[in-house]
Amino acid sequence: MSLNFASGPVRVRVPATSANLGPGFDALGLALGLHDDVAAEVTTGGVRVAVTGQGAGELPDDDRHLVVRAMRVAFDALGGQPAGLAVECVNRIPQARGLGSSSAAIVAGVLLARALVADGAERLDDAGALRLAADIEGHPDNVAPCLLGGFTVAWTEQTGARAVSLAPAAGVSPTVFVPQERGLTATARAALPASVPHADAALTAGRAALLVHALTADPALLLPATEDRLHQHYRAEGMPATYALVTALREAGVAAVVSGAGPTVLALTDPGAGFEPGTGWHLWRLPVDSSGARVSQGRLGHAERDPVAAGRMS
């Protein structure tokens, strides 16, 4: 069956995310109020990508761009490819910092492709979009909060990724400490051992269960609930400044974890005005994004094109 493509542009706003949240390795995630805006339309031929903000001048401007690659996979799932594409990205999520920039690009690509097909939502429903995005990313912990918003619990079944979104309690106050240096998920994963002691696995499982309760009902328990022995300390040698900051925050009573694969640090409770992270860190207080990815019609407007707007940090 041939596809009927939309005649005009569509746009999507996608939030930054923080995955793992300490003990919830590859399962838990949180959507944050910092956004990329991406618009796309079908053209008569070729691929053009314009990037403003984070990654401008570094990211590819053709089919190699991750948004376009995700769109191509989604178009295949929908049943066909357009003749050409024009894509505009206004990026505010830092690249390779552990804040879900790649997942945001993947989710944007999947949702834009679906919106550019007349009956795209019938061909690819929300559950299918999650499965497809997780397949592209390799795991669902970042794509789930990006799509659904809020605090998400994601898992993978034989049929693919699934997730639920829960509303964080009012006392959850995310703060991210973002360094200048970048990190790579593949490098961080390579530091993990093939197995861990049973006692460490059991403790971490208990903390992950407690974290669901702490995040949604009792933030006073966030400090013990974010204790992890599964992955963070194995990665410490590769990002010593990150691990030192997490340790300092936790010793000060702040529920701090490595954000995703790092090197950003996420605090789930306010560290207070008196806490000094030291040189080389940007402190951004961000709200939880409860909505997740949002698709609308038309090109990016003036506000969306501003690389400093849409939830810019303090």
UniProtKB/TrEMBL annotation:
<dbReference type="GO" id="GO:0009088">
    <property type="term" value="P:threonine biosynthetic process"/>
</dbReference>
<dbReference type="InterPro" id="IPR014721">
    <property type="entry name" value="Ribsml_uS5_D2-typ_fold_subgr"/>
</dbReference>
<dbReference type="GO" id="GO:0005524">
    <property type="term" value="F:ATP binding"/>
</dbReference>
<keyword id="KW-0808">Transferase</keyword>
<keyword id="KW-0067">ATP-binding</keyword>
<dbReference type="Pfam" id="PF00288">
    <property type="entry name" value="GHMP_kinases_N"/>
</dbReference>
<comment type="function">
    <text>Catalyzes the ATP-dependent phosphorylation of L-homoserine to L-homoserine phosphate.</text>
</comment>
<comment type="similarity">
    <text>Belongs to the GHMP kinase family. Homoserine kinase subfamily.</text>
</comment>
<dbReference type="GO" id="GO:0005737">
    <property type="term" value="C:cytoplasm"/>
</dbReference>
<dbReference type="InterPro" id="IPR006203">
    <property type="entry name" value="GHMP_knse_ATP-bd_CS"/>
</dbReference>
<dbReference type="GO" id="GO:0004413">
    <property type="term" value="F:homoserine kinase activity"/>
</dbReference>
<dbReference type="InterPro" id="IPR020568">
    <property type="entry name" value="Ribosomal_Su5_D2-typ_SF"/>
</dbReference>
<keyword id="KW-0028">Amino-acid biosynthesis</keyword>
<protein>
    <recommendedName>
        <fullName>Homoserine kinase</fullName>
        <ecNumber>2.7.1.39</ecNumber>
    </recommendedName>
</protein>
<comment type="pathway">
    <text>Amino-acid biosynthesis; L-threonine biosynthesis; L-threonine from L-aspartate: step 4/5.</text>
</comment>
<dbReference type="InterPro" id="IPR000870">
    <property type="entry name" value="Homoserine_kinase"/>
</dbReference>
<feature type="domain" description="GHMP kinase C-terminal">
    <location>
        <begin position="228"/>
        <end position="271"/>
    </location>
</feature>
<keyword id="KW-0791">Threonine biosynthesis</keyword>
<keyword id="KW-0963">Cytoplasm</keyword>
<keyword id="KW-0418">Kinase</keyword>
<dbReference type="InterPro" id="IPR013750">
    <property type="entry name" value="GHMP_kinase_C_dom"/>
</dbReference>
<dbReference type="Pfam" id="PF08544">
    <property type="entry name" value="GHMP_kinases_C"/>
</dbReference>
<dbReference type="InterPro" id="IPR006204">
    <property type="entry name" value="GHMP_kinase_N_dom"/>
</dbReference>
<feature type="region of interest" description="Disordered">
    <location>
        <begin position="295"/>
        <end position="314"/>
    </location>
</feature>
<dbReference type="InterPro" id="IPR036554">
    <property type="entry name" value="GHMP_kinase_C_sf"/>
</dbReference>
<feature type="domain" description="GHMP kinase N-terminal">
    <location>
        <begin position="66"/>
        <end position="150"/>
    </location>
</feature>
<keyword id="KW-0547">Nucleotide-binding</keyword>
<feature type="binding site">
    <location>
        <begin position="94"/>
        <end position="104"/>
    </location>
    <ligand>
        <name>ATP</name>
    </ligand>
</feature>
